[in-house]
Specification:
Chain lengths: ~190, ~1000
């Protein structure tokens, strides 16, 4: 770990500490893991170095997560929207999923992860995809269309305060704030 | 029309993400001048939108939802109020068209520029006085900016904004943000920047900007003091960071925890966290006791009377060899150590104060963590919201194991299906069934209480028996072993009875599985507390009277209990988990692999910790045993868990259980232990022959003696004074109690007030929703009527017509309704709207919108369409003119009421205005969509004008709303629950 520390540089490290919810150790660990995923020939992390989505998803922490692709897309700053991450994006991801991130941040990113079509609101389509993601795509776990309809109606009844048929960010945050388990479960530890 | 595509506006991000509304305040100017006739809306957009909306349609399901949503909305809000008469002035008609020449003049000259520039550029940032609220508004800005990036783009395209506009707007946002950040203190700023929901690069940029700004400012007024304080704070921060770093390094079992969490989820992980937490308590208590009590004793009197040989059985019984060691109270002397020229070390005081301080610290830590977890997990939990979201948003991102994930998915789908069927089933339950349930509850409760009482009685008699046995004992090995009978029985009861209780699960029927868990926990707590209660009673009455060195006897008893409990915990995990796994996998398949019973295991831990707390006075080194016990237990449970158990089937509620466990640890357990200790210290005479307090009436009189000695020392006068006038005076406690009660009452009132406020705000949101739905419905009606008109043949050049009278009528109607609604909703505030301006403004706005919409719809539907000659040639501009007029009126009224009305209830005007703005915006979108199919290829250039006008208006309206928001922020501030309000606002907009 000593080598990575020197690689990162003190200023950079303190900047990372200041801008994310991560501790020094977590940042160093993240750096180590990130470099391990880079090709062997070129292991210097620059701010422009990007890891492709496939590489990122090969990490055991994300490998079997049902939202892995969404997570990559949400945190990627890539222009081509291919879900590739720079080291800073990667830190962003870990920061949002860290222990000390605020509910505000967590719910914000959760909303964006659940918003499958990136239109800024959770509508019926998003909710359906969300449920399918969580129950799995196999036939025996999947809900029937009838059940799905019922479920989505329940969800909207529960959370759609202004009755516009979709759940927007503030409504979502309202729901989240009443679900005390969210903060402890919306967490990824390296 | 199906629900998900009934309007393009639904799918427009900007419409929903109202934050994005901010971004296009200025652009209209540009599109008006720079691009007067070019089509700013690329044709593809509409098509894309439509396509997307089609995608959103559920497989055959949209209709139901839409019926549901619309069915309840339209008139309910208007009709439920009866008083609507007096305060709503008769709806004024709009000035007829003939009265508008002056306005038209305006129109032709200055057009839409009105005062936009002024509005836009001078919008001051209303900064709230306190830092917290400043932070709130800043956070809001941050999220607003955030929303520009991912979702705003489509909207921007739709609005036809050029990139420059967007960039300008963003820069402006950023500038404001930076200004706010610069004003903060360093710590606040770091926190604020960290809390911004932006990408890392953006945060970095912001931070850089702030630092540049800051250093620029600094160089202007730079002095020594600032420099010094800066260095000091910096070093403090470094120090703090290093401390946390050290804490991180010491973090125990990180990898193991991660593994457990990855496989079994947060619920099971919380058991291990709890275990670790208790372990920390014990390590701390060991360090304190060892450092302040044991080491001085060992230093002064290192020779341990080793008359008794070590036989091995002592490890279990704690008697014999250990009896005279520092393990127990009896092993400590009452002498003050130290020679004459050195300060003395008073063993009595050290013993007393060490334990008192430890208990005090424990209590503080418990209260702190309890309060924190209550705040986080209980306050906002409301029972009405069950079900689906709870399941969906508690997906455990911790779980990384492939198999566990699959299993979790299965469980979740089962749970979802259950929750769906529950809703149906719960409604109907015949009376006889319910009676049967109540009878079962009664029976099980009686049975469980009887069992608890029986166990208590049995243990009491066993205690009596043990007392006699000890009296008669000859010191043989068998006699010593017989002392193990009592702890054995106690531990056996603790192991078996909970299993028996869990059988009740089969016959009891609870509507709510959580309820069931609570009941089981409650029964177990009652059982354990009654057993401990009996034991304590036995110790402080019988033992204290009979034995010469009774504290050591109690200490031995506790030692035996702790050790025996340890053995039984190991056995318990063997029987409870290993055996049922073997049975479940090999013999009876239907039982299946057992789940880890978090509740039972945590209660065991709590019981063990209670023993340790009680024992700390009688046996200061008991924490050592406890540490070893917890350490072993951790690994044992981990192995047992991974080998024998499967992940829990029911997800969720882990956080609440944790809160409950901390509460149980505090209330019966810690409070019980403290009261026992307090009783011992204050009333029971300590034994005459051993221990630090020999020869005193009570333990506490050691403090009296100390104080008495201090009276001779001049420099310690104040201690004496404090002791006599504070600790010993009733008046002081009386006053303190009084003050605390007053504070509790005040805070209670505040919470009541906030609850009311929450209810009001919720109602408000619902009402706004109704308003919106109502207006949407109106709009749809309009569109339907438009669609049903025969569509004439194509012929460009001819312009739409004055058909405004029916439309106008409708608009007026709508307006009237709006006013009523408005008036009604404003009664939520304290005052009735005696000045009508609030409602007028918004309703006028509505009016304007409606008119505008109407105008546009006319323009839209007849656009590129031939017109029969019978329509008088008044052109769409007339409708537009009207709209503008209305808008102007709204504006002037706006102007008028903004300045002089401070007492107005600000809650009302704002959201409704916003709603209208959103609506207008949405409508504009809608038109876009709808216009597309009608637009003949050769008529591309002419429909732009009205549409962009509409856009203009939307922009301006939005801007106005924005202003209103700003101007209202200040009056809001004195509110009691100002913070909350702010939050609500921000959340909503």
């Amino acid at each position: 770990m000593g080598t990575t520390a020197s690689q990162l540089g003190k200023d950079l490290l303190s900047e990372y500490q200041e801008l994310t919810f991560l501790t020094k150790q977590e940042i160093l660990l993240a750096h180590k893991r990130f470099t391990e995923l880079l090709p062997k020939e070129d292991r210097t992390v620059q701010s422009t170095t990007r890891l492709s989505m496939e590489k990122i998803l090969s990490m055991p922490e994300l490998k079997s997560n049902p939202f892995r692709k969404r997570i990559c897309h949400v945190f990627s700053t890539s222009d081509t929207k291919d879900g590739s991450l720079t080291f800073e994006d990667f830190l962003d991801l870990l920061s949002a999923f860290s222990d000390s991130a605020t509910l505000e941040i967590k719910s914000h990113y959760a909303f964006r992860i659940f918003d499958f079509d990136d239109d800024g609101t959770l509508d019926g389509g998003d909710l359906e995809k969300l449920v399918n993601c969580l129950t799995g795509e196999t036939d025996d776990t999947r809900l029937t269309p009838e059940e799905m309809r019922q479920l989505i109606r329940n969800i909207l009844e529960e959370s759609d305060i202004d009755k516009d048929g979709t759940v927007n960010l503030s409504e979502f945050q309202h729901v989240i704030s009443r679900s005390p388990d969210f903060v402890s479960s919306f967490k990824i530890v390296l | 029309m199906s629900y998900y595509n009934n309007s393009g506006g639904y799918n427009n991000p900007a419409y929903h993400d109202s934050d994005t509304l901010q971004i296009d305040r200025s652009p209209p100017r540009k599109s008006q001048h720079g691009n007067p006739h070019g089509n700013p809306y690329p044709r593809e957009d509409g098509a894309v939108l439509r396509e997307r909306s089609d995608l959103h349609q559920l497989p055959g399901g949209g209709q139901t939802i839409s019926d549901d949503a619309q069915g309840r909305v339209p008139w309910g809000g208007l009709q439920e109020e009866s008083w609507r008469g007096e305060d709503c002035l008769p709806v004024g008609l709009l000035p007829p068209q003939s009265e508008s020449p002056q306005w038209q003049h305006d129109f032709s000259h200055s057009g839409y520029q009105v005062d936009q520039k002024a509005h836009y550029d001078t919008t001051p940032l209303v900064r709230l006085p306190s830092t917290t609220s400043g932070h709130v508004s800043m956070r809001f800005r941050g999220s607003r900016k955030m929303s520009l990036f991912p979702v705003g783009e489509a909207a921007l395209c739709n609005l036809g904004l050029s990139e420059d506009d967007v960039k300008n707007e963003m820069d402006n946002e950023e500038e404001n943000l930076i200004k706010e950040l610069v004003a903060m203190s360093t710590r606040d700023r770091i926190k604020a920047i960290r809390d911004l929901p932006m990408t890392f690069a953006d945060k970095k940029h912001i931070r850089g900007q702030v630092l540049v700004f800051k250093s620029f400012k600094k160089s202007q007024k730079w002095n020594c003091f600032a420099d010094c304080s800066k260095t000091v704070t910096l070093s403090f921060r470094r120090c703090g960071a290093n401390m946390t770093l050290a804490g991180q390094t010491l973090e125990l079992w990180r990898g193991t925890m991660k593994e457990v969490g990855g496989k079994f989820g947060t619920g099971v992980l919380s058991y291990f966290k709890f275990l670790k937490w208790l372990l920390m308590f014990n390590i701390f208590s060991f360090l304190v006791n060892f450092g302040f009590i044991t080491i001085p004793q060992l230093v002064s009197d290192p020779v341990i009377s080793a008359e008794v040989n070590f036989k091995g059985l002592e490890l279990l019984t704690g008697a014999g060899y250990f009896n005279q060691t520092v393990l127990y109270y009896g092993g400590y002397s009452n002498e003050s150590q130290g020679t004459e020229n050195k300060p003395e070390y008073n063993m009595q005081l050290a013993y007393f104060f060490t334990i008192a301080a430890y208990m005090l610290l424990c209590g503080a830590a418990l209260i702190y963590s309890m309060a924190r977890s209550f705040r986080k997990r209980f306050v906002l939990d409301d029972k009405a919201s069950g079900g689906a979201w709870q399941l969906l948003c508690t997906w455990d991102f911790n779980v990384t194991n492939e198999r566990a994930v699959r299993q979790r998915k299965n469980n979740l789908s089962i749970q979802l299906k259950e929750s769906l069927s529950d809703n149906i089933r719960l409604a109907l339950l015949p009376l006889s069934d319910r009676l049967k349930h109540y009878a079962v509850f009664l029976g099980t409760w009686l049975l469980s209480t009887a069992v608890a009482v029986g166990c208590g009685a049995a243990i009491y008699f066993l205690c009596q028996y043990e007392k006699e046995a000890v009296n008669k004992s000859s010191g043989s090995l068998v006699d010593e072993a017989s002392t193990l009978l009592l702890p054995f029985v106690v531990s056996l009861v603790n192991l078996v009875v909970p299993l028996f209780y869990s059988l009740f699960r089969k016959i009891e029927v609870y509507s709510n599985p959580r309820m069931q868990v609570y009941v089981i926990i409650l029964r177990n707590v009652i059982l354990k507390m009654s057993i401990l209660g009996i034991l304590c009673y036995y110790w402080v009455t019988d033992v204290a009277e009979q034995f010469p060195c009774w504290e050591a006897v109690v200490g031995q008893g506790l030692y035996r209990l702790v050790v025996m409990d340890f053995l039984f915990l190991m056995l318990g995990s063997f029987f409870g988990e290993f055996l049922s796994n073997v049975i479940g996998t090999n013999c009876i398949q239907s039982l299946g692999v057992p789940e880890f019973d978090i509740a039972r295991n945590v209660l065991d831990l709590i019981y063990a910790q209670t023993l340790a707390w009680i024992g700390i006075y009688f046996s200061p080194l008991l924490p050592v045993i406890q540490i070893i016990k917890f350490f072993v237990l951790f690994y044992l449970k981990k192995v047992s868990l991974t080998r024998n158990c499967q992940p829990p089937r029911r997800a969720g509620r882990a956080a609440q259980m944790q809160t409950i466990f901390i509460a149980i640890l505090f209330f019966p357990s810690f409070v019980g232990a403290v009261s026992l200790l307090a009783y011992t210290v204050w009333t029971i005479p300590p034994s005459e022959s051993c221990g630090p307090f020999r020869g005193l009436n009570t333990t506490f009189s050691a403090v009296h003696i100390w104080i008495h000695d201090l009276e001779d020392v001049n420099s310690a006068r104040w201690t004496v004074w404090v002791f006599q006038h504070v600790i010993q005076s009733e008046i002081f406690y009386f006053l303190i109690t009084l003050i605390i009660i007053v504070f509790i009452y005040i805070f209670w009132q505040i919470t009541q007030g906030r609850k009311q406020l929450i209810a009001l705000l919720r109602q408000q949101i619902v009402n706004e929703g109704k308003d919106k739905a109502f207006l949407l419905e109106k709009l749809q009606d309009l569109q339907k009527s438009k669609h049903s008109k025969p569509k004439p043949k194509k012929e460009t050049g001819n312009r739409p017509e004055n058909e405004s009278s029916p439309g106008l009528l409708q608009a007026l109607l709508a307006r009237q309704q709006m006013e009523e609604e408005e008036g009604r909703s404003s009664t939520f505030g304290v005052s009735m709207p005696s000045d009508r301006s609030t409602s007028t403004t918004s309703s006028t706005m509505v009016h304007a919108m409606l008119l505008r919409q109407q105008a546009d719809s006319q323009a839209g539907s007849y656009r590129g369409v031939p017109f029969p000659a019978e329509y008088p040639a008044l052109s769409p501009t007339s409708a537009l003119i009207q709209a503008m007029q209305a808008r102007q009126m709204a504006e002037s009224e706006d102007e008028h009421h903004r300045t002089p009305v401070p007492s107005q209830n600000p809650v009302n005007a704002l959201p409704s205005t916003m709603i209208q703005v959103m609506q207008a915006r949405q409508r504009a979108q809608l038109e876009l969509d709808q216009d597309e199919p009608y637009r003949a290829p050769d008529s591309y250039d002419d429909p732009i004008l009205p549409t962009s006008n509409a856009m203009m208006q939307v922009m301006q309206a939005r801007q106005r709303a924005e202003e209103e928001e700003e101007s209202y922020r200040t009056p809001v501030s004195p509110w009691l629950a100002q913070q909350q309000l702010q939050d609500k606002y921000n959340d909503r907009y």
